[in-house]
What we know:
The protein is mainly alpha-helical. Helices cover 49% and strands 9% of the residues. The model has no long low-confidence stretch (mean pLDDT 93).
Amino acid sequence: MIWGDSERFPECERDWQPGLFFKIRATYEDHRQYGPQLNIHNIRLINEQDRADGFAEADLLEQSRHDPTAMFAELRGLADAAISDEPLRMLTLQLLDTHADKLKLLPASTKHYYPFPGGWLEHTLSVAKKCLYLVEQYREHYADLTPPLNQDLVVAGAVLHEIGRAVELQPGLSPSEPAVKTVAGELSGHILLSRDLVHDAARQIPEFNSELLHLLEHLIMTHLALPEWGSPRLPVIPEVLILHHADDLDAKMEMFTRCLRKDVSAGPMTDRDPVLGRQLLKERKV
């Protein structure tokens, strides 16, 4: 906020736009009536010298706490190691590699969970790890199931369940600009786009098992499980349950913890989170 009687008000109204970064020399004042204020002495747009001195837009923006390049390498390594079916492994790695640059910049969603650059990778890697653990546990627990739970299918589904975000969303032109939906994203959404990317990629691999492709597409199409959440069909294979609950748990946990980490309100409860639709308890002894 800048006061209307300030000599800088015309400059503010004309030139100071959201998404721009400025270097400021100012005096901080804790005004008795109006609270914290900055009395600006000098202000200008940042320049290349500022970047050489250590300025980075990303330091001032919400982003993944983990390095996107490292997360991508870990996700790719997990898929390479945990998917034994060669055509399925080839398809999974090919889709990751094709969209690598974009995936490192995308959020997992624009508003709800992991809504920041690198969020897609952070979420997908977390879901893939959980799915791999769960399918190993349930394969052992239900060893008499015929055929056994398909680990390859679960892991590939976890890695690719939101690969359609690479077509649905376009990263901002600068680090301060949010990702926006493309025309394809508005028309089809990430579930259908994910299925289409998988289907088209599989057509380029002649030896790809057609039944496995149908099951993978079903996993992608139904991982939300409920029509009211956007699932076009209900799950009919147990592998979907693993992906659905791992995906939902990871998204909800990120939403809860982000609310708790960011809240600065007084009192034992957070402010009402608009996405969760509730306040969370933050003052705990244990």
